[in-house]
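[SOLVED] Need 3D model of a two-part complex

Original post:
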Amino acid sequence: MTAAVRRARETEPADALPLGPPHRNATLTALNETHDPQLRSWVASANTQGNDFPIQNLPFGAFSRAHSQEAFRVGVAIGDQILDLTAAYASGAFNGSDDALAATQACCVPTLNALMDLGPSAWSALRLALSRALRLGAPEQALLAPCLLPQDQAEFAVPARIGDYTDFYTSVHHATNIGKLLRPDNPLLPNYKWMPIGYHGRSSSIGVSGQAVRRPISQVMRPGVSAPELAASARLDYELEVGVYLGRGNALGEPIALDQAEQHVFGLCLFNDWSARDVQGWEYQPLGPFLSKNFASTVSPWVITLEALAPYRQAWTRAEGDPQPLPYLDSTALRCQGAINIALEVYLQSAAMRDQGLPPHRVSHSNFRDAYWTVSQMVAHHTVGGCNLQSGDLLGSGTQSGAAADEAGSLMELSLGGKQPLSLPSGETRTFLEDGDTVVFRGHCQANGAARIGFGEVRGTVLPARSLTA
Amino acid sequence: MTAAVRRARETEPADALPLGPPHRNATLTALNETHDPQLRSWVASANTQGNDFPIQNLPFGAFSRAHSQEAFRVGVAIGDQILDLTAAYASGAFNGSDDALAATQACCVPTLNALMDLGPSAWSALRLALSRALRLGAPEQALLAPCLLPQDQAEFAVPARIGDYTDFYTSVHHATNIGKLLRPDNPLLPNYKWMPIGYHGRSSSIGVSGQAVRRPISQVMRPGVSAPELAASARLDYELEVGVYLGRGNALGEPIALDQAEQHVFGLCLFNDWSARDVQGWEYQPLGPFLSKNFASTVSPWVITLEALAPYRQAWTRAEGDPQPLPYLDSTALRCQGAINIALEVYLQSAAMRDQGLPPHRVSHSNFRDAYWTVSQMVAHHTVGGCNLQSGDLLGSGTQSGAAADEAGSLMELSLGGKQPLSLPSGETRTFLEDGDTVVFRGHCQANGAARIGFGEVRGTVLPARSLTA
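Solution:
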């Protein structure tokens, strides 16, 4: 990566960069003029240090004006603003490029699915057109300035129609941590290092950041008793995950090869896979988690495209002594740049902290580059048996935990199964989530010679359980 | 049930039966004039003994004229014909009932979801109108006769847009049989008798009867070796299941109580949950089946409404010594009529049998009334933690096996894990499915004093695996 990034940094001003026309096999991992860290936007807030949405990012989401009856529609985050692509399409700003115009037209709807269906060359053409039109001095400024809406005046929707959601388990640290709690003598099962373990999740209960999550009531088996009871979960937890949106799918029976996999990926988001550990412990054998997971999952509003993530790609390696992947899960490209450097953080804010004016408190951090399995391996494995993926499908990375104790992506791990409480700045402690707790995930990417881009955040607050007697 | 059925049998001719107007809390389990076994249709084939689709059945499906470019649309099976509801709506035959007309209008689309969304009173009103209009001597005959298409001139689609698919595990005989093969010392896990165990499945790969199922290639771990390999499944199996389509859903966080559960169920179908046992054995710990199930599942074209199944309801009981269900999974109505008597059969036809002109051979049979958990318990448990169901969602019952050896709903069970081959009339034997095998499930309902109704069939044929070197 270093050489590639250096190339971008040392180039002439962006407009002078050679860039071929978008093509069907657009390499979403190659750097191009849209990644130039010198670029500045005429949207002033996009140029602020530390802001998540500089002109090098350009993530997509679905929004409408808050408290309005407007339909949701696709927009692009730029600084603290949203570029309304329906308005931008009508403005004529993109009339100069047929590809970009067609891609913008596919955004005049409530979800990203139509854009996703167009495939990587269209995504690339739109990104390039947006980058050029939003640059400082771009002649499109006059047409596009009226198409901006401040993000704090918007509400968001789940950005895609998610047909199927699959959750993976790609952090070996998480799998080992959880395994130690459940099976001390056999923490990591023998299949783990051979395949990206995954299972099907529930699509219908996926909501967008800001979701209020009601504490689930379900069957639990308390220690020392002989019969289960129906009770509110006492071990409610979050899971720090990266979400992966499929772009174009595949036909049933037609696998996606590893080296083609990223052509089918539209982008990434932050993802909280809320989990009820006591429910999970009682129900999950032999067919996997069910009610312990399906009461809610939350995505961040913005989808960071794979192309925007190109500067943060890293080599992917296998630890000494671990099995090398089978050929269908291995390639040179994977070894060179299969991993993605995304710094992830978890913040917790209790109701008392809100009352005291205390900000959310960081309880852990990890990095997606430490995942044992990559995005392309998830896609290749998911489809190798013929399963068909569709545009808008969501893959969860599984909880992203690092090797260190403070890099655990769930309270189950941080509190060692509830045995070691965490301290909050309010003087409170936590083993699992309490009613009123707000959980915030943040993520960002940094690399030498590249701009810093961010994922925004995914946020959710725990509501008390329904009355058991109602 | 006996008394209720006797009442239906002893009634006056159907038109004289008292029947109130459809109402919001229509009881889908109560008998009414549409169940009268004396009813005959002006569609002559519907009156043939042993035919699956007499006028007492009236199942819904999505069809189009075979080899045409026509859009799929909703129809009703009657004898060997399909009543095209788009054509029927236009014919004016239902103009006499606002409720039935609105329900028919909701059928002028490619899937059943719009009808499902209307709820039980609309379903009931449409069933009543169809029953009256298709009866021998009905004045609507002249308008509706041109709206018929022979079933053998139609092709079918998956009848609903299935958002989420959940597979349950409701047969204690199947769970015990499989458990004995996997965990001889601990076949039935402690949670089994306390809750309907379920897990999320893959929606995108659900197809309709006639599906050609390509043998999946995936990771398997052969006995006696130290590393897995990518290989075509050598233990491909079917699973004999009943599918349950949700009618109206529930809001996220709002459970459906047991006694309301059937108000949310539109109807039932036959369902083959194809399974690759060698893939399953290697991958399923700790998060459940994944590639072993998601390569294909097949539904029958016709959805038998819950109302059509009213005459075949039976008492639901717990065996002596088994735990009684927790209150949220128990009720008087459940005890009186929670079970449904549906006779299920599995037939197998190899390529050689087809060549020799031998018909499909029955390899096992079971009955849905023997399920340990009922439809309403599946719905109540699925939602108790707040998970939202949506119209068109599919619940699989899990493999339906009976207590006897020839009542096993999968080859895994029938062949005792591959150790005891089955004999076919062609002189061949089977432990698991071979390329070219066709699997057919059939189902029907019979009860004293009620008409016999059938489910039609669900059929699928195994294609060879893709080349591993391609």
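Edit: DSSP finds twelve helices and 26 strands in chain B.
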